[in-house]
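**Discrete fold encoding**
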Amino acid sequence: MYLLFPHRGQTVTSLCWDTVALRVFAGDVGGKVSCVRAGSSKLGKGSAFVMFPVQTITTVDSHVVQLGYSDGHLVVSSLSCCYLCDTEREKFWRVGNKERDGEFGACFLPQGPVGQRGPALLYCARPGSRIWEASFSGEVLSTHQFKQLLACPPLPLVSYKNEPHFNPAQTSPQSLAFPRLLHDQNLLTWTDSAIYIFTPHSGQVLLWTEVKDVVEISVFRNELFCLHGDGRLSHLSLMSPERCVERLMKRESWTLAATVCCMFQHAIITSRARKSLPIDRLEQLKAQLNSASQQQRIGQLEDVISKLEPLDSACSSRRSSISSHESFNVLDCGIYRVISRRGSQSDDESNSLANQSMLEEERLKEFSFTEEEQVENGETERESQRRAKDRFQT
């Protein structure tokens, strides 16, 4: 109880981990924000988890809606605005100048791919389905407006309980307040009736789907764990349509797999999907359907199969540009080496292409050899290139 003394008599409304320094930040309905450091201490042969005294960081103007932490910075979202705190230098900034009234979330989103990430950006929810993008200094860089973009239809939840239905018709624009913002690779938020995922770097809606009575969500990679108002805990997985069909087939849910396949055929027919769903797998799926009672579904699946793009269709346009009376192979450097067939009317043209490709391949090998030689003999780059050019011309 001593550790929770700053929040005695108040309801803690938000918790946030600093996983590097093993600190827990807490905010309550009174606006107080505190920090407690956790650690381990070896006692005899065992070890114990210990908590250090609580440090009060600040008290904001109202109820703490959400806390977020990244790289020494803590964001505190209250009912009226967002505050940014440099926890090392103990400095505070207010994010933006315009206040709001209500529960609006905020979080940091790391930029760039994993392992090459730069400084995170701050995202703060605003009224009317808007989200501010701000820097570590609290400066608002841009405003993302999702109201009109949310006129797209909701994606169905694929469940064993009910057959999914998808209506591609446009819906009305949605003016919403996002009470929480979470991040993984994208921004995730929710209301009491739906879940939304945005891609802020492109300002687009990745998807939204109707899920009722959501109180809290926790994200781990592509897995969502949803706490509902009645105490239920549901588990949702985000995956591409082809991976969804593949998983359903492994579980022998043939009818549901065929339904998803036909519903999202725009994704299934692409060449990329052949890695997960080769043509023979879809033929196997069709064979598992009941020919008497599922004739319509079989017909729809046959239509999808007839539109499938082969795995190497990305190269087909390049290959088709080479005339049918010529054969070719691909050199290591990526150049198409054209070999004319006997008796072809374009022997001279083909031979010139082949010779040019061979010369190009030899030139690339020469430069590769020169770079290795440069390291061994300590030559300058210009001298090495000059020698390589002289040898190539002779």
